[in-house]
Design goal:
about 525 residues; single chain; binds nicotinamide-adenine-dinucleotide; five-stranded parallel sheet; seven-stranded mixed sheet; alpha/beta; about 35% helix
């Protein structure tokens, strides 16, 4: 996976045909900003080196944008939208292009997955699955827009026709995170262009390459220049105009709660439409009557998939009191056996965290738990090179070379004892275990959070499962499963997990205006004003 020059051999953007213009146009520095159909360097000439979190190898160098670049992109997106070059294309044709993107991603699946794994350090196998999910999201919105009908309203009068037309919102500013880089982008880009909008996307600064590949694909498919625009760079330095600039009609954000609040505050000044997909502290409720093996296995998947860097991670396990000891013994035993490794390590079950800084943050939650006297039943520390051939190593990946953190199970938690780590989103391989006595208490604990993203319940009693579903103030609920989602089904947050929905039918409506047209077929003079 590495070579003598410390370059990642998984993905090399400089030799990737789709990105040839990024390097050709860039001369001494790459030109990774995609504005008006052209690859451009950052105006101030800034660059950023992208490294693979699994082993520190260099993936590539990209342009580091500042506000001026973002404003230039917004100007192009505005002019393109106002020209009508895309919004006037019949919906079904726009849908065909969106489906074309799905086809291109499938055609280039290995390339896209390699880029995603190189940037994030996640298993190549997992990235391949992500690419299928991403293509499915483009398929969904491409198909949906082709079948969407306006709505006829019955006005209750023979001489009046009333209808609802769908129109694009206009220029959409998009800001996305690093955990599922292209998936989060797809949930926004697919409905936005299907609906006829133009957009400026700011991809997370650590994971730019799949968004760059996506821009190249839109160009190849003939999406008019200026519809799709990409900025690569860090949030505060280049992201602000997407929520403040008056030429942006809507801002769609996926990321952390604090950034989401800032974006919502900024957007209020020009009353933009705001869509927020934020964090979660997701309860996984396990009743004593659950199928034990199913519950344990899915709880491990919920907590440790992608090393817990998943907004919907089941990081808060609630287990019925009578099952606690048996559950914890088996759960911690298996957590202690989880194998860590890099993207192409065929024995690895999950990978590294995204950065040293993020690993520090995760470690901080565990330190807090330790200080409060909670019991750390597995993990509880960063992995080192010495772990490479140990319990958590495969022998293939040097665990000291990447940002690995051992899967961590925390028991002995008292939620009434000022333990913030029980409520905060660690966004890493850290799970807490609490107990409950009955359905009411399970619900009380599960809803005792500012978040409301996902939750799960494991039981063989269907009635009990439905009662729990009804009581949970979270948006996506799994019964006897964890993590699957469907592009046809809405995704989003209750409470401080967000305020919009992605996917499903609502995920398209978010990017549309609904215009009411009232047509009087027999116009009359009313004579109310000024006729004396
Ligand atoms: P983050 O908020 O730090 O960053 C997200 C994006 O916002 C990045 O692109 C970043 O550069 C940008 N940003 C930061 N400051 C900005 C500013 N002032 N203006 C404009 N952009 C700015 O979050 P993160 O650490 O990258 O992502 C992790 C978070 O994302 C977690 O809380 C996770 O739960 C959440 N998330 C939610 C969902 C969901 O569907 N609800 C999905 C994935 C991730």
């Amino acid at each position: 996976m590495t070579n003598a020059n410390n370059r990642s051999t998984l993905f090399d953007p400089t030799t990737t045909d789709l990105l040839a213009d990024v390097y050709r146009a860039g001369n001494d520095a790459p030109a990774s900003l995609f504005i008006g159909g052209q690859w451009r360097q950052a105006q101030e000439g800034g660059t950023r080196t992208i490294s693979c979190p699994a082993d520190g190898t260099t993936v590539g160098t990209v342009s580091e944008a500042t506000d001026d670049d973002t404003i230039a992109a917004i100007k192009v997106a505005r002019e393109t939208f106002d020209s009508g070059v895309w919004s006037s294309v019949p919906a079904r044709e726009r849908g065909r292009l969106v489906i074309g993107i799905a086809d291109k991603i499938r055609e280039n699946k290995e390339l896209f997955a390699a880029a995603e794994s190189a940037d994030t350090g996640k298993r190549f196998e997992d990235s391949l699955v992500d690419m299928d999910d991403i293509a499915a999201a483009f398929d969904h919105f491409g198909t949906l827009i082709g079948h969407q009908a306006g709505r006829v309203v019955d006005p209750g009068m023979d001489n009046v026709r009333s209808r609802i037309d769908h129109e694009p919102v206009g220029v959409v500013g998009m800001v996305t995170p690093w955990n599922y880089p292209l998936l989060q982008v797809a949930y926004k880009v697919a409905p936005a262009i299907a609906a006829g909008n133009t957009f400026v996307l700011k991809q997370a600064e650590l994971t730019p390459h799949t968004a760059m590949l996506l821009m190249a694909v839109t160009k190849e498919l003939g999406l008019p220049d200026g519809v799709a625009n990409l900025i690569t760079g860090a949030g505060a330095a280049c992201g602000n105009p997407l929520s403040t600039h008056p030429d942006v009609d809507m801002v769609s954000f996926t990321g952390g709660l604090q950034t989401g609040k800032l974006i919502a505050r900024n957007a209020a000044e020009t009353v933009k439409r705001v869509a927020l997909e934020l964090g979660g502290k997701n309860p996984n409720i396990i009743f004593a009557d659950a199928d034990f093996d199913v519950a344990v296995d899915n709880a491990l998947n919920g907590a440790f998939f992608h090393s817990g860097q998943v907004c919907s991670a089941g990081s808060r396990i609630l287990v019925e009191e009578s099952l606690h000891d048996k559950f914890v013994e088996e759960f911690a035993k298996r957590a202690n056996n989880i194998k860590l490794g890099g993207p192409t390590d065929d024995k690895a079950e999950t990978g590294p965290l995204i950065s040293a800084e993020h690993r520090e943050k995760v470690a901080g939650y565990v330190d807090e738990a330790r200080e409060h006297g909670a019991k750390i039943l597995s993990g509880g520390r960063a992995a080192t090179s010495e772990d490479t051939n140990g319990q958590h190593g495969t022998g293939q990946s040097d665990l000291g070379a990447g940002f690995y953190y051992l899967p961590t199970v925390i028991d002995g938690v008292d939620r009434n004892a000022d333990m913030d780590f029980v409520y905060d989103e660690a966004f890493g391989p850290v799970v807490t275990i609490e107990t409950f006595r009955d359905e009411d208490e399970a619900l009380e604990i599960a809803n005792d959070t500012i978040y409301g993203l996902t939750g799960a319940v494991f039981t063989t009693d269907a009635g009990k499962a439905e009662r729990i579903v009804r009581g949970l103030r979270h948006c996506t609920i799994w019964i006897n499963d964890y993590h699957p989602y469907l592009p046809q089904a809405e995704w989003g947050g209750y409470k401080q997990s967000g305020n919009g929905r992605e996917l499903g039918e609502v995920g398209l409506a978010e990017y549309q205006e609904h215009k009411h047209v009232y047509h009087n077929l027999t116009p009359t003079v009313h004579g109310q004003f000024g006729q004396q």
